[in-house]
């Protein structure tokens, strides 16, 4: 029973990266449309930092972020995907890689960016996992170290995507939003309430950040 469960979980993880496993599918084409729309809205900026968040849990935010990153990398873009959901990181699981050293370790001065960043081996997509569990996650994400890190790596990539925690549950996304160039809000069909969407919009506007788009996840 346990073996069958593990096999099932591995298959589910593979389906998460549909843009990689089935690039010709209808779903992959939808992610290419999202990628194109982000570029269109973003204009002629040479490099951008985009935060991806959702109002609450279970709305598919991390899966959406990972697939957008892969879709961009497939177009020969140099992409950095950062797992900013450091309380409960998941990007490393999606890409089947270790999470021994990551964002929290870089911010805490325990490792350099070069020591922590990992190639996904999908185009020019690099990944900075969440890292070891921190004692003060909100303080780390709001620190000058976070600002310095983004300023340093921004010129190295065409685009940087940050997967962040649910917006209305924690302060983490709010403190990161204002240091990014824009925010993509992921909502779940038949799950996310209109009140949550409007509250998210209000919170992001208060954080003085630009909402560049909303993705409705089926």
Automatic annotation (TrEMBL):
EC number: 2.7.10.2
Molecular function terms, GO-annotated: non-membrane spanning protein tyrosine kinase activity
Swiss-Prot/TrEMBL keywords: ATP-binding, Kinase, Nucleotide-binding, Transferase, Tyrosine-protein kinase
AAA domain boundaries: 50-196
Catalysed reactions, semicolon-separated: L-tyrosyl-[protein] + ATP = O-phospho-L-tyrosyl-[protein] + ADP + H(+)
A matching Pfam family: AAA_31
InterPro entries linked to this entry: AAA_dom, Bact_polysacc_biosynth/exp, P-loop_NTPase, Wzc-like_C
Top-level taxon: Bacteria
NCBIfam families the record matches: eps_fam
Family: Belongs to the CpsD/CapB family.
Protein name: non-specific protein-tyrosine kinase
Protein species of origin: Siminovitchia sediminis
């Amino acid at each position: 029973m346990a073996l069958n469960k593990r096999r099932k979980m591995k298959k589910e993880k593979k389906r998460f990266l549909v843009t990689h496993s089935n690039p010709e599918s209808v779903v992959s084409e939808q992610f290419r449309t999202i990628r194109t729309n982000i570029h269109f809205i973003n204009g002629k900026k040479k490099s951008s930092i985009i935060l991806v968040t959702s109002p609450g849990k279970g709305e598919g935010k991390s899966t959406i972020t990972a697939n957008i990153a892969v879709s961009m990398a497939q177009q020969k873009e140099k992409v950095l995907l950062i797992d900013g959901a450091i309380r409960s990181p998941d990007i490393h699981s999606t890409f089947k890689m270790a999470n021994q050293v990551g964002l929290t370790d870089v911010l805490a001065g325990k490792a350099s960016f070069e020591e922590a960043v990992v190639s996904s081996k999908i185009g020019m997509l690099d990944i900075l996992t969440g890292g070891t569990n921190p004692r003060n996650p909100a303080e780390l994400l709001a620190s000058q170290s976070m600002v310095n890190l983004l300023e340093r790596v921004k010129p190295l990539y065409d685009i940087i995507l940050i997967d962040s925690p649910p917006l209305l549950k924690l302060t983490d996304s709010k403190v990161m939003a204002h240091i990014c160039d824009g925010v993509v809000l992921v909502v779940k069909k038949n799950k996310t309430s209109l009140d949550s969407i409007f509250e998210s919009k209000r919170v992001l506007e208060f954080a003085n950040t630009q909402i560049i788009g909303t993705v409705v996840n089926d």
